[in-house]
């Protein structure tokens, strides 16, 4: 079950200052905690990210599925999020990136993690790109 998998990744991330093994061993990984769009409850998702200056960029790929991931729906309703990178935790605002900048960031993510090209090819939806901007930046 995906929730069990995510829980294992989250636990390993927190126990090892942001380092995990397996398929994420060399990846840039962060934990994104959103507020449920309907439930109002916090929900944490491990996500690969693209460092971009003082912000982190995440891709709402859902592995190429036809629907946006739940975390994306949550941050559209509640854009204030909590981000964990390494051993650091901070508040951020999630901002959707559009147009040419979106395309450039997506291409950079593909260069870093080629599976994102496969995700884009598997779906007809436009996969959202989201910048996580640290509060106070």
Automatic annotation (TrEMBL):
It catalyses: oxidized coenzyme F420-(gamma-L-Glu)(n) + a quinol + H(+) = reduced coenzyme F420-(gamma-L-Glu)(n) + a quinone. GO terms for cellular component: plasma membrane. It comes from the Bacteria. GO terms for molecular function: coenzyme F420 binding; oxidoreductase activity. Belongs to the F420H(2)-dependent quinone reductase family. This is Nitroreductase family deazaflavin-dependent oxidoreductase.
């Amino acid at each position: 079950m995906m929730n069990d998998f995510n829980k294992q990744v989250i636990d390993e991330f927190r126990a090892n200052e942001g380092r995990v093994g397996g398929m994420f061993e060399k990846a840039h990984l962060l934990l994104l905690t959103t507020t449920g769009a309907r439930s109002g409850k916090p929900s944490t998702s491990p996500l690969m990210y693209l460092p971009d200056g003082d912000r982190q960029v995440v891709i709402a790929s859902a592995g190429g599925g036809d629907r946006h991931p739940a975390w994306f729906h949550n941050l559209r309703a509640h854009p204030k999020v909590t981000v964990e990178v390494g051993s650091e935790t901070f508040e951020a605002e999630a901002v959707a990136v559009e147009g040419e900048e979106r395309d450039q960031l997506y291409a950079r993510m593909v260069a870093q993690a080629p599976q994102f090209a496969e995700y884009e090819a598997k779906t007809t939806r436009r996969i959202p790109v989201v910048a996580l901007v640290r509060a106070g930046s």
